Amino acid sequence: MSEAKASIDKQTVDQVAKFGGEHYKYGFTTEIDVDKIPNGLSEDIIRFISAKKEEPQWLLDWRLDAYERWKTMDEPDWAHVDYPKIDYQDLCYYAAPKSMEDGPKSLDEVDPQLLETYSKLGIPLQEQEVLAGVRKVAVDAVFDSVSVGTTFREELAKDGVIFCSFSEAVKEHPELVKKYLGSVVPKSDNYFAALNSAVFSDGSFCYIPPGVKCPMELSTYFRINEANTGQFERTLVIADKGSYVSYLEGCTAPMRDENQLHAAVVELVALEDAEIKYSTVQNWYPGDENGKGGIYNFVTKRGDCREDRARISWTQVETGSAVTWKYPSCILRGDNSSGEFYSIAISNNMQQVDSGTKMLHLGKNTSSKIISKGISAGRSSNAYRGQVNVHPKAAGARNFTQCDSLLIGDKCAAHTVPYIEAKNLSAVLEHEATTSKISDDQLFFCQQRGLDAEEAVALIVNGFCRDVLQNLPMEFAVEAQKLVGISLEGSVG
Amino acid sequence: MSALLDIQNLHAGVEDTPILNGLSLSIRPGEVHAIMGPNGSGKSTLSYVLAGKDGYNVSQGEMLFNGTSLAYMAPEERAIAGLFLAFQYPLEIPGVTNMTFLKTSLNAIRRGRGEDEMDAASFLRLAREKSRALGMNDDMLKRQLNVGFSGGEKKRNEILQMAMLEPKLAILDETDSGLDIDALKTVADGVNALRAPDRGMLVITHYQRLLDFIKPDVVHVMADGKIVKSGGPELALELEKSGYGEYVGEAVNA
Ligand SMILES: Nc1ncnc2c1ncn2[C@@H]1O[C@H](COP(=O)(O)OP(=O)(O)O)[C@@H](O)[C@H]1O
Ligand SMILES: [Mg+2]
């Protein structure tokens, strides 16, 4: 080995050494008094959560029914992931900061320590004057099992937009919740959705009235803080006829040695001519380089283009979590409705990702588009699982799928599992797939132009993801680009 | 004046295959040196060894750049120190625009030198000015790096990067190959514009043609991994007539 090579290897070793400790900058813990129930799952626990939230009887019954169904179901094992069995009796299903005991407060009354936590995460919970050129973003901040505050509610209310925590929606808009809850993801849809339906604690609720273009981006920021606690939140977004909303979701968690479960459900309903853009930057703690700790992210996300010409677009940047099991999907029910799925899924070290989408064409002339970019590094495994289904009545359905995998190093794996079922002969379905590697020559070329190896990888990967990054709202795109670089730290050497 | 680049008795190769066999070469600031030689004589290898490509190992000898040994420096450190290589086969990076690449590169080098990054407006102005000077239209800056570029466009793009980065030592590896006569002139103009008293250039070429446009101070003939003859510009013309046959034989017999 030449000395030049030796010095590079030394650098790599240094980089990898600092990797475990420093690269996940959201890994801090907030020391705060919490109200936490004993571990375990039972009817009593569900009754407790429901009572805590002063829920109506119908919702408690709904939860209990979901629980009964869950008990008869088996944990799915078809995904390309491998993790030790979860002991559902050894999890805590409700933890909330003590200061939130008496329910949601106005923003001025929120515990300063919580506000500080969010400001450290870069999430503004004050409605401060925004800088020129930066659009306003309303935030609902969910901390463990509760929403600690929602910004810009009054301003949004002027346009009739309802944006609040799920618990508040149950109290203040029960008719909307009752009408739409579980209407996209039925409570027994799958094992994790059933579990969520039984024990969900909070989440965000949003309703855009007919004809309204939501005047700012809406966002939910999920933070798991407590040890040994699962997060089971529920998001429900309804875009009434002719309305438009762009919704952002972000997630982080402290670095802990034990795994934590996040089993969320997101339901989107788009009525006639409505459009929903839902973007996620998922950055849950991925575990350390040996696969210790990290979040199990088992999430059900589905959008329903319920009426004609409705449009739903999912964009996701998945960089975190130890294990990801997630398939944001679209039901294209209305004629001429359309669904899109843009995804960047990055796995490094020992991370496992099984993600993709399902496009269900039911209406006539429905169209869907899938662009998936999977990046695997380290010893990780990254699977794209996609399903395009065309119903016999869905004349004129169209789908375009592009599925690209990029491998960094030779110890990682990428899998592509596309599943296409067309029961209408007029369907036009296109599928393209590529697998590539970052070549040593590309890396050297970038290094010769002054970039270090990690900057080079970040640049090349960002180029690879360009089609998807371009779909993110501006504020998110910049963050996402940086995140792409950070999550691949230590991947070359 | 001390040498900008000083190579003494360099032995190097790829993994266990020796390719350079005791090469010595010294370039002073302000000088343009040309290296000519048959295919396979080790010209590209020399450029890779100087730039620090992984897998190219030095077994003996020394390479000093401004008095500092290159051997211990990572490729990007060499770039930051002012060493630039225009590649014989420029790489493609899909999804990364020419503009983004130039900016990332320029700012990485500025950061490496402890300078501030260039602001977006100044950068844009500079990139436009330099690319126009090379007869490239602004669209080229928006295209993905070298993706779908013709051979000539790629070479021109290398010179654009050089013009933006203003290196201390520029190594041009067969920048002339694949260029028609007009493109060759533009590229040569670009190179000549960068000639400066504090800058050195090493122009690697297979043909004498390029040297009609870029007048070298010294011409070296390389064969079998070392310099077998050095002289003035007239040496290039001689080679054009007699070919490399003589040198190949000599090196093999040596
Ligand atoms: N990666 C490599 N592995 C093994 N041999 C190589 C490699 N690269 C070049 N060579 C050999 O080294 C010699 C010099 O190659 P090169 O430096 O490309 O020559 P030139 O640029 O003068 O045409 C050739 O014999 C070539 O086959
Ligand atoms: Mg060559």
TrEMBL record, chain A:
<dbReference type="InterPro" id="IPR010231">
    <property type="entry name" value="SUF_FeS_clus_asmbl_SufB"/>
</dbReference>
<feature type="domain" description="SUF system FeS cluster assembly SufBD N-terminal">
    <location>
        <begin position="155"/>
        <end position="214"/>
    </location>
</feature>
<dbReference type="GO" id="GO:0016226">
    <property type="term" value="P:iron-sulfur cluster assembly"/>
</dbReference>
<dbReference type="InterPro" id="IPR045595">
    <property type="entry name" value="SufBD_N"/>
</dbReference>
<dbReference type="Pfam" id="PF19295">
    <property type="entry name" value="SufBD_N"/>
</dbReference>
<dbReference type="InterPro" id="IPR037284">
    <property type="entry name" value="SUF_FeS_clus_asmbl_SufBD_sf"/>
</dbReference>
<dbReference type="InterPro" id="IPR000825">
    <property type="entry name" value="SUF_FeS_clus_asmbl_SufBD_core"/>
</dbReference>
<dbReference type="Pfam" id="PF01458">
    <property type="entry name" value="SUFBD_core"/>
</dbReference>
<comment type="similarity">
    <text>Belongs to the iron-sulfur cluster assembly SufBD family.</text>
</comment>
<protein>
    <submittedName>
        <fullName>Fe-S cluster assembly protein SufB</fullName>
    </submittedName>
</protein>
<feature type="domain" description="SUF system FeS cluster assembly SufBD core">
    <location>
        <begin position="222"/>
        <end position="464"/>
    </location>
</feature>
<dbReference type="InterPro" id="IPR055346">
    <property type="entry name" value="Fe-S_cluster_assembly_SufBD"/>
</dbReference>
